[in-house]
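Re: the 224-residue chain
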Amino acid sequence: MSSPPLVALSAFVDPTAIAIVAGGTLLATALRTPFADLTRGAAALGVLGRKRYRADEAITQVNALGRIAQRHGMLALDRSRIADPDIAAAVAVIIDGGEAAEVEQRLADRFRARADRHLAAAEMWAGAAEVAPAMGMVGTLVGLVRMFAAMTDTATIGAAMATALLATLYGAVLGNLALMPIATRLKRLARAEAIERLRLMVPLAEFATREAPRRLTAAPSVAA
């Protein structure tokens, strides 16, 4: 007894259903998301393959900057290359004479702004994941309308039914196997980075505290 033939993969390809689901998801996401968040969300695809952020290397650099300042003075840090933007911002505050509380406030503001940007990017993908199944239902309704409108033409009933069923399939797969995993990974990476960057707060605040007495000592005395 021969086994039934396998269904060809081409049977699962329907241009109309693809256009409705993919195009509708893209259009709905663009309409509900600010342009800045759209660009951030698209750019966030580049970080999906990266490892989780670890602050160990940044903390090592902070300690090295502290040794440079102790030996050569704070002005020597102007010639140091600081790749991390948070460390650079904190060092700029310290060079300008800021105290530990000012450094902590600057870092807290930067951490909050970064978290907002990361959350906006992840929410864009999460929103698209919510829209995709709805667009699949739209495609299903379009296919059913075409089918009922062509009940007298048996040659087109099959194609209309395929559009209706495949649109639902496309929406479910796109939303749950592509878009939502992207949003989840972006949130996970952002959460891990936020926790790790909090480790920078203490060494940079201590850096500012250590430099405060030296700045006062180095300041020229005012004649009475």
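The chain has one domain: 16-25+52-214.
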